[in-house]
Amino acid sequence: MLEQLNFIKQCRKYDLTLWQCPNFLIIIIGLVTIIAMLGTYAVAIEYAQPEIVALIVIGVTAILFIIGYLVLQSFEKLAQANRMKSEFVSIVSHQLRTPLTSIKWTLNLMMLKEKDSLTKEQLEKLITIKESNQRMVNLVNDLLNISRIEQGQLNLKPEKISLEKTIQDLIKEYSALAKASNIEFSLKSEFLPLVLIDKQGIELILRNLIDNAVRYTKGKGLIKIKLIKKNNSVRCEIQDSGVGIPNKDKRKIFQKFFRSQNIMKYQTQGTGLGLFIAKSVINASKGSIGFQSQENKGSTFWFELPIKKTLKQKILKHQNKKH
After folding, report:
1. CB atoms within 10 A of CB 84
2. All domains of the chain in start order, with CATH
3. Which among 288, 273, 295, 172 has a CA at the least distance from the CA of 237?
4. How far is CA 289 from CA 70, 165, 278, in A?
5. Is there a contact between 64 and 32 (Cβ–Cβ < 8 Å)?
6. Which residues, other chains included, contact 32 with Cβ-Cβ below 8 Å and sequence gap of 6+?
7. Over the stretch 103-145, which tens digit does the pLDDT of each residue have?
């Protein structure tokens, strides 16, 4: 709250003058309103002439109207800048996607067809280029997702998904990386119904959480994944024994581009977009997400998604309500 009241800092943050900054103008409106009320009361007691009181009220109203107009203009300017930024990110990301995808397929083709004729050094360089290209593709995809979220155009297509099967497939995908890092997976699951969520969305969420758990667990470790039914939702918990999250960083963990300082010591790569996107997809799917963490002890990220109800379940619920 004190940070919000520091209007000079806020104005610099948005590159606005004082008379364009909403924080400053709202304070001015408050002060003018208080002074006007006290002044009107004092004049009314002293003179008790309706004409004078009416003129003061009209004058104060005009001042407040002008300041309100300036506030509106400031918000319009910020909204326009935000829209232009989102459009720019979307256009640039789409333009980058095509050449990056072409490079990816060309590299795959070279490594497949020319594998026998390449030296070990050449193959290693191609693998490095391929990994760098894939990081760029992932970044572009994240930026596109951010742009869609900000414009309210996520276009999720909910369908019935088995979380257990999706997680099993991802564990297989990450098995090589986990083995190289001396990490094991443990999956415990009850007999669970299907959840209603976008297929690509849930894969993106789980991939981000599992990837973080693997990359931020140093030395030998165990990643425990648990699926349970909780009320009318399915709850997924992913627990690691990694570096954890400092208390001072916990409130910022789902913000865009945020990465904890202790993480930067171990893993310099990353954009800080994964958890923001995960939370946006979960919220759009009417679910919830959160975490518990202790620095140097590990973290447990969890999310809950509503269970896909069958027609029979809906009828029974409706009948129970009637009775």
Report:
1. 10
2. 1-153 (1.10.287.130), 158-306 (3.30.565.10)
3. 288
4. 39, 20, 9
5. yes
6. 60, 63, 64, 67
7. 888 888 888 877 778 888 888 888 888 888 888 887 888 888 7
